[in-house]
């Protein structure tokens, strides 16, 4: 087909189904480069015979409704499971989240950095926030709340 003009070759190939074009890509380098060209692929999509997207079961005409029914049933079961999971999630008891405090080896003298880590604040923070963080730590470690007498004093 090398003696035919390229525009006629393209016009013929526009009408070939995409599955066949895939096989023809190994025929020659010219065609392979043509099949990779976006202009060709866009025009081929518009002109080629439309291929059915539905799977065809040759001789199994009863299989399609069964597959569709199984898909609907699976979707219904998944939806039911999702609804039950959501209801269980909404009904769960609200558990207060415990903040993780600094558990590290302490230095001989307390530094500003270490104090900020213990309180859970940044080093350069307003004094009011430091007092609030200190109060939270003291309440969490109070003997009435199961804390230590040593830490609370």
Automatic annotation (TrEMBL):
Residues 1-48 form the F-box domain. GO terms for molecular function: ATPase activator activity. Coiled coil: none annotated. It is found in: Mitochondrion inner membrane. One of its GO terms (cellular component) is PAM complex, Tim23 associated import motor. InterPro entries: F-box-like_dom_sf (IPR036047), F-box_dom (IPR001810), J_dom_sf (IPR036869). GO terms for biological process: protein import into mitochondrial matrix. The keyword Membrane applies. Keywords: Membrane, Mitochondrion, Mitochondrion inner membrane. The keyword Mitochondrion applies. PROSITE patterns: FBOX. Probable component of the PAM complex at least composed of a mitochondrial HSP70 protein, TIMM44 and TIMM14. The complex interacts with the TIMM23 component of the TIM17:23 complex. Component of the PAM complex, a complex required for the translocation of transit peptide-containing proteins from the inner membrane into the mitochondrial matrix in an ATP-dependent manner. This is BnaA07g02950D protein. It comes from Brassica napus (Rape). The lineage of its organism: Eukaryota, Viridiplantae, Streptophyta, Embryophyta, Tracheophyta.
